[in-house]
Write a structure and sequence with these properties.
Mean pLDDT: 81
Shape: globular
Strand content: over 45%
Largest sheet: 15 strands, antiparallel
Number of strands: 35
Number of helices: 1
């Protein structure tokens, strides 16, 4: 790393032994010592894959990340930005129930990822104690706002400040549905949750059809067990329970932990499909009317009947074992100061996954999986090469976009994320 005359970090470099040094990032600052520009992914001497720009108001609050992307800006706008966000504090937007906020609360957030044709908007409301009570979701393009409330939420609290009710909407099968309608009950004279009940249909399960025509899987597998695959669905070809379907070569399917298969090009394999009369639960899963949560003398939750799990803690009050009651156990190992060193997944008495954490290095089943650096991570590939990936984060430090060099010095989005308020 390099630093300027004020001891502010400027350049960050990273090198894997035997490989060329990577110029991960460069920071530029305002005259008030706030990050003005964050360059990511060095290519050549002074060029980067991304230039992330930040703007602030007079109170040093973040107001903008990058400029609005071409999908919503004028046709003449040219942008290489992958992510855009704008944060409004005291500017009201009545269309999405976002009154002006004078105390530092956020009134409205607007964001967009490259490739999305519309802006995403959240408008927020708060009570007299500055606790969020409602969020309204909308989309916007050149034709104006569309208040769909796909991902709207509401919140209620008791006199202690504990949350008593929470609702979340979501999009299921292209329809907006209530996926959470949670009621929280607390132990008497306590802030500990006694039980959570879900009044929405999504909590107990929504009828889903298993309609598969063909799923293609190629012979390349990543270290996380993800295959590249193409999903082609056809509503007229419903698969009955316990039938088998051929998965052939193609673009992305997540396989269960411990599964291993490396076909030759064009070779197929058989996979079992879940019964089509199964219901799929969304959001919180309310599986029992029993009292949900039990605690130890230190206040740690030790049982959750909804998930059918039992949790055990060490002397640092860190969970070291979760027992699912069906032969599956997850165990963690820590050092004396609480730093996590290992995670093991055990099924039927046999270890099916082991994840080791050694500083910035992460291993899966004794094979190097990733090396973390200040701006993202380095992925170890099967051909023994390394791929640098970079994160674009929002105002709360959440990763919104992960990208890499596509091989031609152009940024390629690997994943994008969006979040409920909570």
């Amino acid at each position: 790393m390099t630093f300027d005359h004020k001891n502010r970090k400027v350049d960050a470099f990273h090198q894997v032994i035997g490989n060329v040094e990577e110029h991960c990032s460069r920071l530029e600052y305002t005259n008030r010592d706030l990050v003005r520009i964050r360059h990511l992914g060095g290519i050549g001497l002074d060029n980067f894959l991304q230039e992330v720009n930040y703007s602030y108001n007079g109170r040093r609050w973040l107001t903008r990340i990058n400029d609005v992307l071409p999908a919503i800006a004028s046709e003449n706008t040219v942008s290489d930005d992958l992510f855009y966000m704008r944060i409004n504090y005291n500017l009201a937007d009545n269309d999405i129930n976002a009154p002006s906020q004078k105390t530092g609360n956020i009134a409205k957030i607007t964001w967009q990822t490259l490739g999305e044709g519309k802006l995403n908007l959240y408008g927020f409301q708060y009570d007299f104690l500055d606790r969020i009570t409602q969020s309204t979701y909308a989309r916007e393009d050149g034709n104006g706002k569309e208040v769909t409330n796909d991902f709207g939420t509401t919140y209620a609290y008791d006199l202690r400040g504990n949350i008593t009710q929470l609702t979340r909407s979501g999009r299921i099968d292209d329809a907006i549905q209530l996926i959470d309608s949670l009621d929280y009950e607390y132990l008497q004279a306590s802030n500990q949750i006694k039980q959570v009940t879900d009044e929405s249909d999504a909590g107990t399960g929504i009828q889903k059809a298993c309609c598969v025509e063909e799923i293609e899987v190629d012979d390349m597998v990543n270290n996380d067990g993800t295959y590249h695959a193409n999903f082609r669905l056809n509503a007229s070809s419903t698969v009955n329970g316990d039938n088998t379907v051929n998965y052939k070569a193609g673009e992305e399917i997540k396989l269960e932990t411990g599964f291993s298969y490396k076909p030759n090009s064009g070779q197929s394999f058989l996979a079992r499909i879940e019964p089509c009369n199964d219901k799929k639960a969304y959001g919180f899963e309310d599986k029992t009317d029993l009292v949900d949560y039990n605690y130890d003398v230190n206040g740690n939750r030790i049982a959750d009947p909804d998930k059918n799990i039992t949790i055990r803690y060490n002397y640092l009050d860190l969970p070291y074992q979760v027992d699912f009651g069906d032969g599956k156990i997850i165990e963690w190992l820590y050092n004396a100061d609480g730093t996590k060193l290992r995670k093991r997944v055990i099924q039927g008495g046999s270890e099916v996954l082991r994840q080791d954490y050694l500083g910035e290095f992460e291993y899966q089943n004794e094979q190097l999986e990733a090396i973390y650096h200040s701006d993202g991570r380095v992925i170890s590939k099967e051909d023994n090469s390394f791929e640098y990936q970079y994160n674009i984060i929002d105002n709360q430090g959440n990763t919104r976009v992960v990208f890499r060099n596509d091989g031609s010095d152009t940024p390629e989005i690997i994943s994008k994320s969006a979040y409920y308020p909570y």
